[in-house]
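Homework help thread (please don't just give me the answer)

Our assignment gives two proteins as sequence + structure token strings and asks us to describe the second one. The first is just a warm-up. Here they are:
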Amino acid sequence: MPEIARLTEFDVLANLPGLTTLLEDAVNNGASVGYLRPLDSRLSHRYWREVCDALATGGRILLVARDGVEIVGSVQLDLSRKPNGRHRAEVQKLLVLSRYRRRGIARDLMHAIEEEARRANRSLLVLDTESGSDAVPFYESQGWERCGSIPDFALSADGVPTANILYYKRL
């Protein structure tokens, strides 16, 4: 089973090729995670550098799953810094390489990010996902509560306006 580790901004730079591959694999296989396919490597590099900035300021936590030295999955926790929101965080970009899916890696990453949230004194987590995606039954099986949907919230990986589903989980 892959090992899960927390990365710093310096680790991201050292692992940029693997992280870029992970994001490109997700988008190019249809994941709606903010980009359209085919994903250009320059955009992927720019995204991970933005993650570095968020990690450096303490506003983000990044976990990766590794099979040996290869990064096969990741998940992020964006920590609210607002005075009235320091009890909450947003789970973002749960990614697993397509050839590693259905092995429990996403489940393990979600359990680990929930533990990181607890350590950061967060008691409420939120996330959103594309309506109709494989992620919907997954999140619900992990105890996430559906709380709404917004039509045409984002473009799918193919550029089609698509509804999302909003979830929350109390820790």
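The one we have to describe:
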Amino acid sequence: MHNKVVYHAMKAILSFGIPVLRFNFRGVGLSEGEHAHGPGEREDTRAGLDWLERTFQRPILVAGFSFGSHVGMHACCGDPRVRGMIALGLPVSAGGRKYTYGFLTHCPQPKLFISGDRDQFAPVEDLEEVWSRVQEPKRTRIIAGAEHFFQGTPDSPTPKLAEMQAEIRTWLSETFAL
């Protein structure tokens, strides 16, 4: 919730006046409960959607980073309250776990995927394989010289967070006429 990727994504979304809810999944930080390896975290996401709907009565966009992008897309795919989804650093393999995305073959909402070309949890070839099966509408963007946290690499040492934010802003403007 407090890492640079989530913070910079929040700033990009807030620049359009869209309310943002950031939260930790169960068992992370000071949150209660225990990590549930996906199903429980999808429940956490749906609880957040319920709160956003009650509080703002507005269409909802969902953005997630890393494990949060997998959980958010899985929880929100097909939910009529969710108008669009953003996946930042979508993992394919991390911590000995393989992530699958079959649920995205039937996911009607607009989707934005942003990853770095040096993401240690998602080689570009693996991402392209996942993305090839994702239902339209979708936009994919690989940021050169970025690793999983959109920081620089030895051959491209400057952070890439501003590029990530620019992609989010462009997609929001073009997809939702904001």
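TA reply:
I won't write it for you, but here's a hint about the kind of observation we're looking for: The radius of gyration is 15 Å.
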